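1st attempt posting a full record on here, be nice pls
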Amino acid sequence: MSQPEGRLLMFRLIGRARAERQRRARVEEQRRQQVIGLIVWLRRRYGGIGAGDVERVARCEGIATSYDEIFELLRTLPAHR
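the predicted structure (as tokens):
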């Protein structure tokens, strides 16, 4: 393999790795937005909710999340949202 071919291969691998990171970030953001949407919906429908309530509904809806993530979102999201 000549030096230009090696460089081209290196740039392709870097490009693929960057694309994979961007794809993972997009998927993570979509999942996070699903959890936020679920929290907003539950707040509107039931008023006061806890992290356990959101986790249980998320599990039923097939949204992968953790108690810690939900607790953090409940703590940081404005109540009027």
